[in-house]
Known about the structure:
Layout: H1 2-16, H2 19-29, H3 37-68
Helix pairs in contact: 1-3, 2-3
Keywords: Membrane, Transmembrane, Transmembrane helix
Transmembrane segments: 5-26, 46-66
Amino acid sequence: MKIIVFISLVTIEMLFLPDAFIYMFVKYFIPISDDGEYAMDSFELTVLLVKALMCAVGAGVAITLFRTH
């Protein structure tokens, strides 16, 4: 049951978490070195990975808080 709730929370967070903050974070704090289309692909992949990591951590924290109460 926890796995289903975790996957549901991550999916919901991925859909509703705004991308603008993550774009700014990646643009200013994570160096992307490539040329042209490869740089954009690397940038988009990095944004997606950062967003997924943030959502997974948020879902893990939410499950932990609900389990302890």
